[in-house]
Amino acid sequence: MNTKHSEGTFGEVFRAALKLGLTSFGGPTAHIGYFREEYVIRRRWLNDQSFADLTALCQFLPGPASSQLGMAIGIGRAGLWGALAAWLGFSLPSALIMLLFALTATSMDLSHAGWLQGLKLAAVAVVALAVWSMCRTLAPDRPRATMAVGSAAAALLIPGAIGQLLPLVGCGLIGYLIFGSSKSAEAGSTTAAAQGSGAGFNRLISKKASWLSLIVFALLLVCLPIAAQLSASTAISLADSSYRAGSLVFGGGHVILPMLENELVGSGPGKLSAETFTAGYGAAQAVPGPLFTFAAYLGGAMSGGWQGAMYGLIALAAIFLPSLLLLIGALPYWQSIRGNRSAQAALMGVNAAVVGILLAALYDPIWQDAVQSAHHFVIVILVFLILHVWKRQPWEAVLFSAIAGWLVL
């Protein structure tokens, strides 16, 4: 697979993603807030419009949306090597921690850890800031603000992935009908194309590479279950379970847990106990980065020593591979679509829906899970102040919140 010339380097993308991998607590929705702060505000690799467009694309695709978003930004910056750098940097810290935990311990009670509660509260402030900033850019008028609020309501009231997909599709149609013949859509298309070009998103992947990626995705989805049935290999069975989970699940890391539990928990060889599975999930809440790195723990917990490490790496690679293949398959067509005037009008609606979905996630599960007392609310306000008024780095806000949680809660 070949990509055209890009502005950045593997090392540059890796360093940026590694910082996010070390500091991005709070799940996929919070990660979007961290990503925007780092890639849009601080580094200016892309603008809010391009960021929201890519976020919308990753919401449509199965797999870990935040990791896919990082890979997409990496591709725009440094080609396919940039995607690899973005994935490694963002996933490596949590993957190593989870794998080490699997190889050294199988239980840990984190339910009353004050520092963990502090990390959750930091995520509340990060997402709140992202919603506020993106709303001003992507939902600045009455029609789009109304679409954002309607999308938030749909995401909260309609259960499952349909609660997110329906507003994206509906607001896209409404945006097309409202803005399709307006000058704002034409101006938005021109501006997005020009600014996106500066961010490197007009130098993506060839159509040949795109189709090859989709073919490989489909072949693995069909052939891995057959290979697992014909072979008694634990490694192949683990790769099959992880790959299918990464291919077929929408909605982020928490949604993937039931599928992995059904596949991997039980009695007999190659299976984990329910207690071991639950212990790993508890530990996964305490580490930054994508929850999909939970797969590294599951593989590592199946055996000890080097074999456990090998299983962990197999599960990790298999669960993320579908995301990369689908992203490579979709990006070239997404880029051409978003430059079209009619498509840009629809994307104006889709972007408003993205703001609404982010607003809904701020309430449930982030706010409901984290803010339970006046002490919690005070910490959230202070973290928001650190980020929005004092303009400090996200990792500084996360560190402050963790220490505050440890001392106060």
TrEMBL record:
Its main location: membrane. It holds the Pfam family Chromate_transp. The lineage of its organism: Bacteria, Bacillati, Bacillota, Bacilli, Bacillales. Keywords: Cell membrane, Membrane, Transmembrane, Transmembrane helix. The chain crosses the membrane at residues 78-103, 115-135, 147-179, 211-230, 309-334, 346-367, 373-390. It comes from Paenibacillus plantiphilus. It is found in: Cell membrane. This is Chromate transport protein. It is a multi-pass membrane protein. Belongs to the chromate ion transporter (CHR) (TC 2.A.51) family. The gene is chrA. PANTHER family: CHROMATE ION TRANSPORTER (EUROFUNG) (PTHR33567:SF3). It comes from the Bacteria.
